[in-house]
Amino acid sequence: MRKGILFILSGPSGSGKGTILSKVLEKHPEIKLSVSMTTRKIRPTETPDVSYYFVTKEEFESSIKNGELLEYATFDGEYYGTPKKKIDSYLEKGIDVILEIEVQGAMQVLEKAKDAVAIMITPPDIQTLEKWLRGRGTNSEKSILERLATARQEVKYLPKYHYSVINEENKQDECAELIYSIMQAEHNKTIHRKNLTDKFE
Ligand code: 5GP
User: Fold this and answer.
1) Spacing, Cα 143 to ligand 1 middle (Å)
2) Where are the domains of the chain?
3) What contacts 24+ positions apart, CB below 8 Å, involve 131-140?
């Protein structure tokens, strides 16, 4: 039976990553999205234990101490981390798992899980990102400038990722398809076909 693959999906705030990911998961419900733990406040659109496990700083720090996290990072002054618990059992069962995490966490996962596959979604350029962030209408000027500065730093990590997916304007469906194709292509790498030659003895 084929094993699952651990996929990392990163992208700057405003890159459209969340929408694209929802499209992939809607069309392919067999893929699991890992639910992260965070100390940030819940947003009105979010559901506890589905969007995130919302915890206190003390609870988060105790999870770090007990070795319960595959990776963690601080982003915008809050902790975010990936609970280890369910990931291995999904992979053993042949289920692919996606971690939607920022770059510091992605680097930790690539260090620990050597067969993880990292994909970064970006807008075509910084001007487009600025336009999208402004178009949301929900961010203050300060927050827009901060997100743009963070994006510039994040994209510097692109060479460490295996794949770059560019979210061109109004091409979210195509992007979702491309991500799914990358996931399937990864399963056809010869490294995952070690037993095939035996079947031709
Ligand atoms: P947001 O607060 O907008 O939901 O997420 C902020 C950032 O944290 C996003 O870049 C998101 O990918 C990242 N993030 C979410 N969960 C995790 C996690 O478990 N670990 C790390 N390292 N980053 C995460």
Assistant:
1) 16
2) 6-188
3) 132/14, 132/15, 132/16, 133/13, 133/14, 136/14
